[in-house]
Amino acid sequence: MTSLFEDPLLWVLLVVLIAAIFAVMRARRTNIQLRANNNKLHGDVASVRGQLAELQTTYSSVSARHAADLEEVRKDAESATKATLKSAVGTLATLAEEQLALLDGLQQKYGDDHAVLGDLMLVDHTGSQFSRRTKGISVLCGGWLGRRDRDASVYDVARSAQGRIRDFERVKVHSQANVAITSRAVEPVAMVLAELLDNATKYSAPGTPVEINIQAVPTGICLIVDDAGLGMDQETKARAASLLTTGGSVDITSLGDPPKFGFALSGKLAAHYGFHVSVDAVSPYGGVRAVIRVPENLLTADVPAPAPVELDEHEGEPLAAKPAPVASLVVGQTAGGLPKRRRRRNGSVSVVASPGADVPDLDAAGEETASRLKAFARGTLLGRDSDNTEGPQNQ
User: Fold this and answer.
1) CA angle centred on 27, ends 21 and 28, rounded to 5°
2) Cα–Cα distance list, 302 to 44, 182, 274 (Å)
3) Cβ–Cβ < 8 Å for 178, 330
4) From the CB of residue 62, how many other CB atoms can be counted at a distance below 10 Å?
5) In whole angstroms, what is the distance from residue 186 CA to residue 198 CA?
6) Which distant-in-sequence residues (6+ apart) come within 8 Å of 289 by Cβ?
């Protein structure tokens, strides 16, 4: 009989058992080590998360401080830019007004010479455009328009705006309302309308019509500008709507290169004086329809009388229908860029032609031109005999 210790199977089982015990012990040690490592990793992760949260807090704080510093620097730069521009533009505006006053004197001095008068009027028209731009930049930089002494009919305001743009001859004014704009709002409405007309003529083909229709609405008066251009895409409309409705401080550096002041200026003036401007409609000609809505509180039913027309001493007929002495046709402009009347040396009131008067050839058609200037003057006198200097912001 074989001993149990001599049984090979028993030895095999014993070896397997011992190997299993060692494997279990090794696995246990490995498991313990893995648990320890896992715990360590969890601790490290928690520590890293804490450090990350701290870094994020620090980053947010630094970013906020950087953004605040950057905004402060931007505001300081914008303020300095506006101050510099305002100062420079003020100087240019003064020079422009001196030039217009000089032209006034030259027109009176050389009024008998049709050719010279025509040339001077063209220079005067250019000066009125320059004055409009300098005043617009001044407003965007913190300056404000002055208060006029007299109300003006809506039609006269439209004719005044027409005379401040390069392609004035393309603009036709259709009046359907016999009301006036109060003195406080005359110049801002004329300025905004001039900007809209300038856009309308610039972004539509030469020779195509630009119309101003004046219509009464339940809430006031609308001046509607229609052009035959290509219109505006949605992005441009959205940007225009933002500039026209914001009315706050305008970032000059965000207006492009070269900067486009029109919508920003219009929005600022509209917000300050209490009227509304929009350019989101399509005109009957396929272009843009721009609308200025002037509320009732800026209107008056007391329409100023039209500019007087001189009568012939012998026949009692308006000189507009007869060959008029050109010396009586003079052009002038106040500090605010509005038409103004001048008196002849003999004391009689002379008719003042607006920069928008159509006078390309006084020599060839002196009689006809004098008549047109007389008619145009009635719509564009607009109180040129009143001061229009820059006033305080709260006016």
Assistant:
1) 90
2) 84, 9, 20
3) no
4) 10
5) 18
6) 224, 225, 226, 279, 281, 282, 283
Percent helix / strand / coil, the chain, rounded to 5: 55, 10, 35
pLDDT in tens, 202-226: 999 998 999 999 999 999 999 999 9
Q: What gap in Å lies between CA 265 and CA 255, rounded to an integer? A: 11
Distance CA 389, CA 144 (A): 9
Query: What pLDDT, on the 0 to 100 scale, is given for residue 137?
Result: 85
* Assigned token pair, 108: 């009176």
- Tokens found for residue 304: 């100023």
| Residue 255: partners with Cβ closer than 8 Å, 6 or more residues away | 261, 264
CA distance 129 to 132: 5
Task: Identify the CA nearest to 356 among candidates 106, 173, 125, 114.
Answer: 125
Q: What is the pLDDT of residue 124?
A: 82
Bridge partner residues of 216 (DSSP): 221
Distance, in Å, from the CA atom of 318 to the CA atom of 324, rounded to the nearest integer, reads 9
The type of residue at 286 is: G
C-alpha of 364 from chain center: 40
Lookup: tokens for 61: 């704080």
Dump pLDDT digits (tens) for 366-391.
444 443 443 343 334 453 333 444 44
191 and 151 Cβ atoms separated by less than 8 Å: no
CA–CA distance, 312 with 316 (Å, rounded to integer)? 5
Closest CA to 306 of 375, 353, 387: 375
**What confidence category does residue 21 fall into, taking pLDDT thresholds of 50, 70 and 90?**
confident
- The residue among 168, 228, 230 whose CA lies nearest residue 197 is 168
Mean pLDDT of 171-192: 91
Give 264's contacts (C-beta < 8 A, 6+ positions apart). Answer: 140, 243, 250, 255
The Cα–Cα gap between 13 and 10 comes to 5
